[in-house]
UniProtKB/TrEMBL annotation:
Pfam family, one: HATPase_c
Species per Swiss-Prot/TrEMBL record: Spirosoma terrae
Residue spans crossing the bilayer: 7-28, 160-179
Catalytic activity: ATP + protein L-histidine = ADP + protein N-phospho-L-histidine
Signal peptide: none
Domain called HAMP: residue spans: 181-234
Topology versus the membrane: Multi-pass membrane protein
Lineage of source species: Bacteria, Pseudomonadati, Bacteroidota, Cytophagia, Cytophagales
Protein name: histidine kinase
Cellular localisation: Membrane
Positions of the Histidine kinase domain: 242-461
SMART domains per record: HAMP, HATPase_c, HisKA
Keywords: Kinase, Membrane, Phosphoprotein, Transferase, Transmembrane, Transmembrane helix, Two-component regulatory system
Domain of life: Bacteria
Amino acid sequence: MQIKQKLILWFALLVGLILLVFSIYIYGTYSNFRQRAFEDRLEKKARVTEHLLTLQGNVAGSVITSMPEQVEFVYSPSDSLIYSSQPRNDFMADSAFRRRVRRERLIRFKYQSPGHLYPKDGVALTYPGVSPSIDGREYVAIVTAYDLDGYRHRNELRDLFWISNAIAIGLVILVGYIFSRQALKPLNNLIGQIRSPTATNLTFRLKAENPQDEVGVLAQAFNDLLTRQEQLVDNQRSFIAQASHELRTPLATIKGWLETSMLYDTDTDSLKRGMGQAVTELNKLTALANGLLQLARIDGVDGHIERHSLELVDSVLDAADTFGLQHAGQSLSVQVSDGVLEQPRPVCIIGNSYLLKTALLNLLDNAVKYSNGQPVTLSLEMDTHERVRIWVEDRGIGLVPGEEKQIIQPLARGSNVQTISGFGIGLTLVHRIITSHQGVLQLKNRPGGGTIAEVILPVEPS
């Protein structure tokens, strides 16, 4: 069911329910008022019969009939019928009923009468009369009648409610249809744009009638998604092109050395030299393939990384120890600020220890590679109460201004590092790992020369 149909249906049901409750309330109120008014008239008629009694207890005269099928009965204190407006009636009060009337003094009742759709109403009451009985017994007056006009008016009111409510609901459906069309017109406009032939273009963007309303916000969010998708497609194309080139180069080199050795090398030394060159290129190819696989693994399992609480000082020192074993003789200074050491509890983050260590080692490896073995600094400090900052500082060639974001892309390298071996995977891997830990990686030039790679990570709430 479309949203437009749901709006019409719910709007009609809501208005119909309100009208139904209101109609039932009015109808019930009128029915109670009719019943009370008719019973009050019957009670007045019953009390009028007291004025017909003489001093001897006889009835002189009759009650004026003003209600449909009105009938009066009067019983003496001795329980004998002394007055009846009609000789026969559809209601006869038996002795048990009369005893009940004398006991309760006033009774309002209903009874079914043949040939009538609705019950008749009656009132029975007692009064002492002109000459009260010595034994305290009283007269009983009973009046019955049929509220023909009241029932007719009630039925007319009921029919009026049915007709008016049906017309009102019909108008609500019509107005709801017009309203829903107008309300959903911006959405239909967006749907029309999406279904247009131009929507297949990567540069396609939605245009909202009103950028400030909810549909405009939705269109902007959709456009932002399209922008990210376009960037992903561009990155993928660039990655495929660069990866193909990077993989093709060492393969061609290996093939060239092997073919040359097979065709021209006749002595052992020449064969060894050719095979050594092939092995060197094969090692580069292996390192490139491992980097690409590791990058693909991070992209594939980002949402399923096993995470747990990590003490950040231990993770930083562990990465520094591993780096020292891999680069013996390399100068590395590790600094932990007083703000971290003076925390009431160890500074922890939620993450994966292996991936975090991999990111730090990649940053340290880059610092050594692009600074020609000069001293490297690894520092840890509190950025705010909720964040911690790790940075790796070297004294190397630094960054070309404007390339800080470019070199994070897969297989992209700075324009000033072409003479230094590498594949452009390390920083991409670091960026993906830090992003998966809800952190931020920032690259900037160090005053005086070199590069600062800064990592900001959220601290585990205490």
